[in-house]
Amino acid sequence: MKKTIIKKGIILATIILSSISLKAQIKYGVQLHGTLNTASFTAETDTSPEKDWKFGYGGGLFAEITVSKAFYLRPSINYLQKGAKVAEDFVIEGGNTSTQESRVNLNYIEVPVVLIYNIGNTSSKWYVGVGPSFGYGISGKAEVFETTHIGSQTHTEFYDAKAFKNIEDGGAGFKRFDFGLNAVVGVHVLEKGMIQLGYIHGLSNIANKDDFQGNKYNNRSIMLTLGYRFK
């Protein structure tokens, strides 16, 4: 059911982006994103892993469709990187220690549909917006670096898996479909440009639950966006 809803959302947002209305004033543009990514997650372990931010980037196309004097709709379609960095320390046999560092790299086609409000009046440079964001994972990788300290010796192992491949096939088992809420605040500059700060709060649990029922993984992304409108 969730997959069907998300699929329909992506199709609807893409149609909105590509449709041409004779009555509405429509502007088109391009945008580039720099992202700081992490995740909210739980796992079936007794440890407390430490999370860190992971840098990413993206870019895409957007449209601005006038709704009223102060409001307009901004659908867009983007390539966007998400993911997280995680570190865990373990005590193993003989009182020795092991450190496991994981990096999750996820690449999405992301389709947010944001309702924008010009603060104050139609000529205001500042704006805020909120709306849903639909994602589809196209590629990615989960990497694990494990360092074991036994006495004075150090042993390091590395292994990786394709993020969206099934676990039984050697992958990490992440689900491709992602849904979240997108909030933005920005300013129009030099007539056709914009600088925007945004946040995507992932609501979908994309972790594999078939083998590990207690696992949860929700994407979190902060974005700095530079945009330019052609019309």
Overall pLDDT: 84
CATH class wording:
Mainly Beta
Helix-strand topology string: HEEEEEEEEEE
Number of helices: 1
Q: Helicity range of the residues? A: under 10%
CATH architecture annotation: Beta Barrel
- Largest beta-sheet details: 8 strands, antiparallel, barrel
Overall structural domain count:
1
Rg computed from alpha carbons, rounded to a whole number of angstroms: 21 Å
Distance between the ends: 39 Å
Tell me the strand percentage band. over 45%
Order the strands across the largest sheet as they lie in space. Answer: 1-3-4-5-6-8-9-10
Give the class from helix and strand content and strand pairing: mainly beta
**pLDDT under 50 segments (min length 5)?**
none
Report the strand count: 10
Shape: elongated
Write the layout of secondary structure elements.
Layout lengths: L1 H17 L7 E17 L7 E3 L1 E13 L4 E21 L5 E22 L7 E25 L2 E10 L14 E13 L3 E10 L13 E14 L2
Antiparallel strand pairs: 1-3, 1-10, 2-4, 3-4, 4-5, 5-6, 6-7, 6-8, 8-9, 9-10
Describe this structure in words.
This protein has one helix and ten strands, in the order αββββββββββ. With 231 residues, the chain is mainly beta. The model has no long low-confidence stretch (mean pLDDT 84).
